[in-house]
Amino acid sequence: MPSEFSGKHVTVAGLGVSGVPAAKVLHGLGAHVTVVNDGDDERARTQAAELEPLGVTVRLGDGDTLPEGTELIVTAPGWKPTKPLFAAAGQAGVPVWGDVELAWRLRGLNGRKPAPWLAVTGTNGKTTTVQMLASILKAAGLRTAAVGNIGVSLLDAVTGEQEYDVLAVELSSYQLHWAPSLRAHSAAVLNLAPDHLDWHGSMEAYAADKGRIYEGNHVACVYNVADKATEDLVRAADVEEGCRAIGFTLSTPGPSQLGVVEGLLVDRAFVEDRQKNAQELAEVSDVNPPAPHNIANALAAAGLARAFGVSAAAVRDGLRAFTPDAHRIAHVADVDGVAYVDDSKATNTHATEASLAAYESIVWIAGGLAKGATFDELVAGAAKRLRGAVLIGADRALIREALARHAPEVPVVDLDRTDTGAMLQAVQEARRLARPGDTVLLAPACASMDMFTNYNQRGDAFAQAVRELGA
Known about the structure:
The chain is an alpha/beta fold.
């Protein structure tokens, strides 16, 4: 039992996916645990009933007051740094950790050898890249798991009975903000675009939190050659002596880079005499799907795996074995020579830009909650690829206006309804606009909660509507 927690008064801020495991782990380590939570709904009361019999104190409906005697706060990642609870903690000199920080500090629990972390962040592509990385590591015969922001608790991974050789870790900007002592074996920032600025306060603060993933890296800082901001974060990081900057690019790679040459993924970073030599890793066709942004994800995953010493053959085999999650540029069906593709996960303009770049002639289904986004740059870049557009959702007028400014010749169908049945009509209208060889692409560039529970339900509604077309 680590002495640093035994008898310590710890406040866990927030129930939910991270709070309940944190409270249980800390209680098991001998801490006096109090959980505070903003909400007092049925779900929170159910979770409280799970914790209170253990001896954990739970305060519902008051997440702003610092419990008396608190010596440490472990917070859910989504709680904003501006909350009064954290201001009170600062005044009292109480440190604030996230669940990732707690997991990092518990890696050697019970005397086990800590598994190194290969960490991934970025505005888009994190989950896919981490899953690709885990598939590659498994193909190399390593005991591993995809954990973190992907939905699998890091606390469970470091405190459970299963031992690992290495972990593939997805980290959000929220999690990184609250993880000051994290030091990964190697890490990647896939891309940077404005997102969650209401939480971070500015683009600079958002980028700085993303950049924390590089601090103290031991072997490699993997960055996106096409996104200079990611390289800037590498340059600013304080890393271990000998840690290398490794770029990935969709073009021919230079020394210390991974890239693409004549349909092949190649490595010029982890080879002898990288000035002259390159190692073939896989074929572009081994990446599923082989869209440009997904090839970039594969190169980032390969870079991290190669930094860990994984063979080229394992990279190839892991990419071939990988199956992407639903609603990520997923081909649903071909109907009358038109492909229907579900990328409901494209909930911001950066993700949608990558999705639109994957196809030549598109009928675009878009709209939802814009979250403060603007669409001029997105539409201007994709205008030549658009056969037509069908707009749904509460903020569809913002996209319609951008289309009028930058693609006035593109026919637009504006569906003035926000009920879930609008998706069937949207697909029917897209079918009317499409021609054989086109792609009808659901890439909304917006959040889904105006019409759907989440992006999964939105994608399911699209797929069901497509199936009805072919019935």
